[in-house]
């Protein structure tokens, strides 16, 4: 016998949990399926010997959609973030003060006087820029048009890499890059206990609102009616799990990667096209738990002439045992840069914390993580991204960091979750009226 629910959600990452919680709070009966034993997707945290390892470096943008949605649901966001202190720029193997604000811009020896003046002007301009009007322009084109000195372009490109995770300035749309820069300037925090705290907070709100959360449940297919002739565009009927269980639902929300969505409706050319077009943004990650820092004041380094990132997340959030330190090192991949060796990342850490190897308690290297399922391109911009509604299949929606008009990274996931919930609750309200 088929089970029934109002809305079936596929995926128990932050996007799936958020849409489920919002819908259940609005009075809908919601069932969420997650194929792993554990919720969280790419926002999961693994604890090793008291060190809380996120899946690569994770920062929550306080001015973004994720903070808005989490705040609206009452999910606690405790932690802290860099405000410029201990922040360095890495160029040609040497560390300099990172020009993150007015004081560090004056102090740094990264640029000469004329370069500093130009950087100051560009930063001011960026905060006022109308990001949406930049659609059709690549970040590379924007940098070349507005910055005359190559050394300033290099610094600004590094700051964009930091907020977008995208190393390919040719491919990345300036509209997405500039709006993400503006969001990031409002502040970022690392989360006490790691992003699992956000996941647990969301899951608790969802369960309290009545969501049935089913883990270790892989959805195999989304079922749809295709009309009397079998040729119609279709309407969602429900879904089928890998163990054969079937659910009837008025709507199905898939909160997974574009390839996973296409796999649930084989033969659908539109969905297959979305999967084929999306270029994932990738990074290599080295995570290290240290018994202590060798340079307690050197907490952050951003590569200027290379796509490097190193940050002592435990300097700002509770992520390590007393006296210990948790460091995330990453290489932004993209363009011609398609891989990284562990050795390269170790060298970056050696610059920030010389002699760190003697204090290692635990470490993990992950060579190719998918940070974002699709890079917002120059050609399509944010407004050309797919979904959240799937126009040719009524009742089918997608949620994720590749979906909708707002934000990048988890901000896009939670913005699309919010849009889907609003739309489905409006429809249910209209039917009830
Ligand atoms: C190295 C790294 C660094 C990052 N840094 C940041 C950062 O600093 N700031 C930021 O905002 N974001 C960051 N992100 C991105 C952020 O983690 C993701 O955008 C966010 O977690 C995506 O959530 P999601 O729910 O959309 O997708 P996911 O987390 O990918 O969740 C999808 C879920 O769907 C499940 N699923 C898929 N198919 C099925 C199926 N058929 N049946 C059942 N379940 C299924 C999967 O198991 C998974 O749990 C980073 C990511 C990485 C990897």
Q: Give the bound compounds.
A: flavin-adenine dinucleotide
Provide the low-confidence segments as ranges: none
Share of residues in strands: 15-25%
Tell me about the largest β-sheet. Answer: 7 strands, mixed
Overall strand count: 21
Radius of gyration from CA coordinates: 22 Å
Helix content: 25-40%
Strand order of the largest sheet: 9-8-17-18-19-16-20
Features:
Guanine Nucleotide Dissociation Inhibitor, domain 2, 433 residues, binds flavin-adenine dinucleotide, 12 helices, Guanine Nucleotide Dissociation Inhibitor, domain 1, FAD/NAD(P)-binding domain, 5-stranded parallel sheet, alpha/beta, 7-stranded mixed sheet
Quick summary:
The protein has 433 residues and is α/β, with parallel strands linked by helices.
Write the layout of secondary structure elements.
Blueprint: E1 3-4, E2 7-10, H1 14-25, E3 30-33, E4 45-48, E5 51-54, E6 60-61, H2 65-73, E7 79-80, E8 87-91, E9 94-97, H3 102-107, H4 113-128, H5 139-146, H6 150-164, H7 174-184, E10 188-191, H8 196-208, E11 212-214, E12 219-225, E13 235-241, E14 246-248, E15 251-254, H9 258-264, H10 269-277, E16 281-290, E17 300-303, E18 308-312, E19 325-332, H11 342-352, E20 360-372, E21 396-398, H12 409-432
Parallel strand pairs: 1-14, 2-3, 2-15, 3-11, 8-17, 15-21
Antiparallel strand pairs: 4-5, 6-10, 7-10, 8-9, 12-13, 13-14, 16-19, 16-20, 17-18, 18-19
Helix pairs in contact: 1-8, 1-12, 2-12, 4-6, 5-7, 6-7, 9-10
